[in-house]
Every structure is written in C-alpha cells, then in structure tokens.
Amino acid sequence: MASTVIGAGITIEGEVTSDEDVVVQGTVRGKLVAKDAVSVEQGGAVEADIAGGPVAVAGTVTGNITSSDRVDLQNGAKVIGNVKATRITIADGAQFKGNVDMDV
Amino acid sequence: MANSTVIGRASFIRGRVSGDGDLEIAGRVEGDVAVTGEVVVDTSGLVAANVSAARIVVRGAVKGDLVADQVLLVEAGARVVGDLRAPRIAIAPGGLVRGHVQTGAAGPARPRAAVAPARAVATETKARPVVAPPVVRAVKAAPPPPPAKVVATKTNPKPAAPARPGPPPPVVPVLKKGTKAVQKKRG
C-alpha cells in the first residue's frame, strides 16, 4: 500500500517530503525526500535530487539519488545523476549516466 | 485510478501541484493546487494553498481560496479560512468557514477591491434595505487615503531640511524631527 502517489498527469514543482512510501507516476521538480521507499514508475519523471530508503527507478530521473538502503535501476529507466547507496543494481536496458558511490 | 494522486498522511509538499487527474490530500500541502479533476482534502489533510479544481471536497483544514468549476463541498469537521467560489457550494452542518462565499459562474480570480465598491453602489441604487456588509466594506475601504495625505504633508517640508547642514537624507526620522523643529521656530 503506497501512501503517497503522484499520479500520471500531475506535476509537483517544489519540495516533497514524506515519512512513508512515495510512488511517482507523474512529474516532480524540486526535491524529493522520503524516509521510506521511493518508486519512480514507468512514465514517471523526477527532475530533482532524491533521498530516501530503497529507491526503484523505471522512469526518468535527472538528479542525484541518495539511498540509505538500495537503488534499483530497472529496465526502461533513464537516470542522469550520481547514485549513492550501499547496494545498487542496474538492470539490462537501463540507461545511466553518472557516478556510483557504494559507500562500503 | 490511473490518474489519481494521493498525498499521504505523513507527506508534506511545498510548492505547486498541477496537472490532470484527481488529488486526495491526507497530508500537508503548502503552495498552490490546480488540477482538472477532483480534489479531496481528508480529515487529516492540512492545506495552506489556493485550490482550484473541477470538484473540491473538504473534510480537513484549508487556509486559502477554493475555486471549483463545478461543485464545492465543505463537509462536517472541515475548517476553511478563505474565499469559496463555485457554481454550486454546499456547507454541511459542522463545517467551519471563514471567508467570502460566492456561488455562480466562476469569474476571474476575485478582484475583491473592485467588486466590493461596485456592489455597494448597486445596493444603494436599488435602495435595498439588505445586508450591511457591502456598505461596511465600502467604509472600510475609504480610510486608507487619509494616511497617504498625512505622509504627503509630512514629506512636503523636506525641502526645508537641506538648508541646514544636518545629516544626509536617508535618515527619515531625524529629518522629520528637524523639520518639525524648523516649523516650531518659524511658528
């Protein structure tokens, strides 16, 4: 049960802060901070830095991703920015341009 | 469901929310909300923003103007501080509203200052013994000019100041004192 959903067709310009899961199907510009899981679904676009728990990307992200847990770039994902997390997976078919920092 | 957006209880958005689709707010939103579908502010929802949508349902707290293209429902337990405008507005018993309420076709974003005097004139010409508020507003609107005049008269003596070799112009209070002193001496 995702608690916060930004639906397709909706654009948020500003700062999104959440203590729960965030699912992005629409567009977020600005900043995205979540204590829990962040999921950028197919068709979703984030032009912002993301900080959160586990981050899953199947859409587009332009900005840095910082996770306290793991980052999964799924098939179809397009990410431009640096990724910092303890565990990172990049699926076949994901586009990625940026640095990876696995802070071991 | 595809286009539906939910701002969860523990979420906070600062900025502008816009686009197509429905929006359910159970968390906090500060900024502007403009969507084409329905906006529902849940009991736990806290909105400090102007909201415009086709349909608006309020069960939580809103501080800002609500403009709906179709219907605006303020349900029991809702708290609204701001103006309401929609073709159809319903305020349920237990709903709290503080602001201007206007039903009818949605016009341009409330030109309040322009509207109030116009309405006062209208009521006067029709000689209707109706509600006082418009008149009160007109009276309220009147006072502002006098202060401006006062300021003008105060600022007028300024030219006299340069005659003294006193401090430079930016320090207004000193200038005022100085000009008063000059006036007293002259008087």
Q: Care to describe what's here?
A:
The complex is a heterodimer of chains A (104) and B (187). Chain A has 104 residues and is mostly beta strands. Chain A has strands at 4-6, 10-18, 22-24, 27-34, 38-40, 45-52, 55-57, 60-62, 65-67, 70-73, 78-80, 83-84, 87-90, 95-97, 100-101. In chain A, the strands form two sheets. In chain A, strands 2, 4, 6, 8, 9, 11, 12, 14 and 15 form a nine-stranded parallel β-sheet that branches. A six-stranded parallel β-sheet of chain A has the order 1-3-5-7-10-13, with no helix packed on it. Chain A is globular. Chain A starts with a strand and ends with a strand. The radius of gyration of chain B is 25 Å and the shape is globular. In chain B, helix 1 (112-126) packs across helix 2 (133-141). With 187 residues, chain B is of the alpha/beta class. Chain B folds into three domains: 5-103, no CATH class; 112-141; 152-186, no CATH class. Chain B has helices at 112-126, 133-141, 145-155, 172-186, and strands at 5-7, 11-19, 23-25, 28-35, 38-41, 46-58, 61-63, 66-74, 79-81, 84-86, 88-91, 96-98, 101-103. The longest helix of chain B is centred in the middle third of the chain and has 15 residues, at 112-126. Residues 109-145 and 147-158 of chain B have low confidence and may be disordered. Strand 2 of chain A pairs antiparallel with strand 2 (11-19) of chain B, so a sheet runs across the interface.
